[in-house]
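New here. Your pick:
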Amino acid sequence: MLFGDLDVADVSGLIAAAVTVVQIAIPLALPIILLGILKEEQAHATTASAVSWSVIGGFLHASQWPTLLSADSASTQGVPKQIELVTSTKTIFAVLTWVAAIVTPIGLYESIVEDDKPTQGVSFHYIKDPSDFGNGTRPRVNLPWSRICGYSTYPYDGASDYPVACPNSFSNVTTFSNETGDYPVVHRLDSHVPEYVIDTFQSGLKNMEDSVSSIFDIEARSYSWQVTNDDPDAIVHDNGKPYPRYDFQTMSSNLLADDYLAVEGLVVDMKNGGIGFRNHSAPPLSKYGSTWSEDLLFIEPESQCVDTNLTFDFKHIRGFPPVRRDHIIDLMLTDRGGFAMLNLTRPTASTANAQHDPRLWDRAYEAAWINNVMSMVYLNVTNVRNISDPDGFQSFSYLNSHVGKQFPLTSMNNTSRDVNVGIGLRRFWISYVYGQYLDGLDFGQWPLLKNPFNVSLNDFSLAASRCSGKSGHDNNNVDDLPAACGLVYGVARRTDGKSPISFELGSRWTIPLYSCTMVVKATIKKVTFKFNGTDNLSSLKVTEIADKVYPNESSKPLWGIERSDKKLADARPLWGLISDTYQGNISLHTLRQESLYLPGYEIGPHGGIVFSRLYQNLPGADFYVRQMINLFGGPQVGDINAVDYTRPRDIATLRKMLELSSKAETTPKILNLIWTDLASNAVIGTRGLHGARVQGSAAGEFTGPSSNTPPVTFMRRRIRYQWAYAVPALAVLFVAAIILLATVVLGLLRRVGPRKIRRFLNKTSQGRILTTYLFGGKSETEVQAVTGAYIPGQNSREKWVQSLGKTPVTVGDGQCYSLSIEMGSQTSQALPLPRGVRWKNSPAVYEYER
């Protein structure tokens, strides 16, 4: 490529430089050519007509040669200062002009900028996603909502192991009891969600921009149809007709993106975590693109982690069984202050008023405290009077540990048990089971630990239940938020400070252990888009995601949560944006605030499995909890098709997880990003500015386009300039302004005019000076007698050329710094010499002193 990486301004500067060089070189070259064709004889004599000498002199002295060669016309000696100032200005101005001609264009550059005024009423159209998300998303064909309640796998949580009528449904289920148990009597089992329920939980959209979604604009990215049980004694829904159910399939992973993404049905925030619901549309494609902003419903996770101040430490080797778990030996649980420096006062995390402050750090801290205390009791570091009595935690009669003390988790032959699956190289382990790293170490023929107080995982479960704050047998209370809680095993890092991806034999490693908790909230965010390129989703860029700012309390959204007498394990409550007319409705909890923490219940050994076995199509009510299950429970508890983040398969992912899990303060970010990555594969939004997707229609069919689209700012191409490069040009303009001002002033004072200019041009003409010296003081008759030419009375250019201008004059070098001037050889008459001129050799040859 000719100009390589140069931009337009650089090329313009180079072109200007080339033009300037030509402008300088050619005026210097032409005098050389002119002098080259003038023939010189003895004494460097050259003969030409008088008018030719005027042309030659003007041409030579108009060039830069007098300045370069310090000729007489460039002299400053003996010249009055005012004349010297004016004549020097010409050279200075020429140099400034040359510099400005080269430098000034470099400051030019093109920029694509926003139009001065946004365009109103622009029509939006659907744009397809050509990526894996677009290709993998199933069409929306005849997909009604379905809601199934009951069927709990764990009825001892207070839930029912048989179907129950969902809140506000058309189902009719009663129960009767006898000495053998409770039994349902099903009169009607309807999975459909009544239209008035849908209208209620999206009634608040009329106070929002058309781009804001409701819970019923959230659909499963993948789904299937529930097959009716053919058993004649089976209880069936909808008179045996199939109904849709949520399914999960992984489309792609964007965990490393660190960007705002637009995928089919979603805006995905892979910088901070969260998904926004939008069926993507855009204004007409324009040459330079367009930009606009929309309000979108976002669902985003919030997490907090607390360092337990316990670590797992081990040595990496390569060997054969019984060496296990990534070939590690000498596995130790190390006290980094979690035991020795434990605060002996038990913390309690309040979950009251959680919609305003969910107290995530307090929850995680209390769970970490219980985990550490139970571990201490298990390891006989301390004692408790009664494990089942919470007050027993406050009594520690001894504490046998110190910072740095290690407790072996492998036997002498370095065998470990399956409970340590989260410990090893290239792992990022998240478990909702507190104390899992100790489970089973007191069993077997040769138990590794004694466990004198018989601590079990059920005792550790107090940590999860206290952290979560909800269980399946609870009724919904808007202020009692559920939380996903568990232990996070960070990515192992070398203790010698060397590269974390250098798995050298004999190297020693450490794994931090955190107690973490997560909740999920719905909120409205303002998203800025830019559309440019091809007419599909690959050309839609999300440039900014910002919290929506409300001018006052009354302008904040009104959120509603379904109120019912059903257990949380039986029926997950609906939520949404509601209108003011529903405020105070006895069937709703209502809150007016920027965001709403979403309802659910405990994510744990029982709650998670219950959620993972739901058979319904109402993703807006449960998908966010499903992803917390996938995150904290992994594929063995959650969706089997979910990405397994516990074993990063590439170094880039491993490095990111290592970096973020190295501190308790940054570990929540990786949790939020994993939840976001999972959620983006689970659901889509169906509302867009081109219209909401029609239920029961084929993919791509929508309601009418919005008549209230946001103002769109189209991009235009503009020429911009960096003013630092304009300094030479400004100097030229400044000098030019002074010159022009002086010219105008002298003209107004009538100090100069065309006649005076012409007169001085003629007076300084080289040919006229020569003829003046030759014929000065002679009458017209005498001159005519010598030249043979008619001498008119007027001294105009044409008449002078006709009379004297054509007279041949030879100019050569004389002696003693003199100039030899010879009129034509035909002259034979002696002429009186002008002042300062003397005869040389013949009557027609003169010399005058220079």
